[in-house]
Each structure stands twice: as C-alpha cells, then as structure tokens.
Amino acid sequence: MAWRSLLSRSTITSARSFQTSSPAASLFSSPPLSAPRLPQLASSFSSLSRPLGALGALQSLVPAQSLKLPQQALHMPVPLTACHQLSQAASCKMMRRQLTTVADKVADKRNIRDYKRRLLAAKYELRRNLYKTLWQDPNLPYELREKYRHKLSRLPRNSSFTRVRNRCIYSGRPRSVYKLFRSSRIVFRSLASEGALMGVKKASW
C-alpha cells in the first residue's frame, strides 16, 4: 500500500505545481479529448512486483493497453521453409521462362538465317550452275575454264545450296527433321502425343 500513497502524493504535487505555473502554461492545461486522464490510467498500471525489463525500467510503469499484441501477430507466421520453397519455385519458373524465351529467340534466329541463305541460293542458282558446268567442261581451253572458276569463287558463300539445311520450324534443329511435317523428331513426337498433327495418332508414327 506504500506505493499507492507515493503515487497519490506525486499526483497531487504535480497537480499543484501545474496550477501555480505561469498563465502561458495554463493555455495547455486542458489535455486533448483523445488522451485519457491520469486517474483513468491509474487502474491500468501493473504491480511493482514484476522484474526489470530489457532496458532496465520497471515494467509496472508500462500501461496494460500498450502490452496488447497487434492483430497481425495473432496469425500463424509462414514457416521459413515454406517461404524458401515458394521463392525457389518462383525463381525456377522465372529461369525456365527466360530459358524458353532464349531458346525461342535462338530458333527464330537460326530459321531467319537459313531463310536468307535460301533466298540467296535461289537468286544465284542459275549463275552458279552455269559457271560450274563451264569450269568442269574438259573440251574448253584451260584459260577459259580458269576464268569461270574464278567467277564461281567470287560468288557469295551463302549462295551455295550446301549452306542450306532443312531445319525444324519450331526448334531450329538441323538434324533428324521430317520433311513432310518440317519438324524434328522430338517436336514431332510431342505434337503427335498431344494430337496436334492431322492423320497421326499417338504411338503410331
């Protein structure tokens, strides 16, 4: 009961000093409406029998209202393992999307390069065949044959059909390509399994 008398004496002393203060301070004598008064908070103080807190202050001087936990703390926190798995799955999905985008870009680049070579080979096809025939003709003189051989060597390198490969239009793969479907064996089997090819059944190729 001694601490209650000390608390009441300190309250009375502070009230008297507040009343005898200067008139400028009396303008702020009335507390705001939202702030609770001291007698109302007196019942909310805890006892002095509690130990010291982490900062060395008495926990009894902390109002009980401030000890309430927020609503967010009442929910069950997500475990760290679940957070790690979610972040790992998101990163894997992002990496897979990036790799797919890169693979598509590479396939498109290869197909575009092959298409340009086909156009160039079609443009110089007759000229190349003519120069090649005249160069390999044994009935012509040596100087004339060397002349056409030199002309043949001056043609663009990509104008030869040996530089053109039948590539898959989906993946750009140059080997094991079915000419009828213009797709590689891997893409062909995946499309056949999905039923995306007309006249081709699953496990029937």
Automatic annotation (TrEMBL):
Any GO molecular function: structural constituent of ribosome
GO term, biological process aspect, one: translation
A Pfam family: Ribosomal_S14
InterPro entries tied to this protein: Ribosomal_uS14
Keywords, sorted A to Z: Mitochondrion, Ribonucleoprotein, Ribosomal protein
Location relative to the cell: Mitochondrion; Plastid
Record's signal peptide: none
The organism's place on the tree of life at top rank: Eukaryota
GO cellular component: mitochondrion; plastid; small ribosomal subunit
Family, per entry: Belongs to the universal ribosomal protein uS14 family.
PANTHER family attached to this UniProt entry: 30S RIBOSOMAL PROTEIN S14 (PTHR19836), RIBOSOMAL PROTEIN S14 (PTHR19836:SF30)
Designated name of the protein: Small ribosomal subunit protein uS14m
Natural source organism: Rhynchospora breviuscula
Lineage: Eukaryota, Viridiplantae, Streptophyta, Embryophyta, Tracheophyta
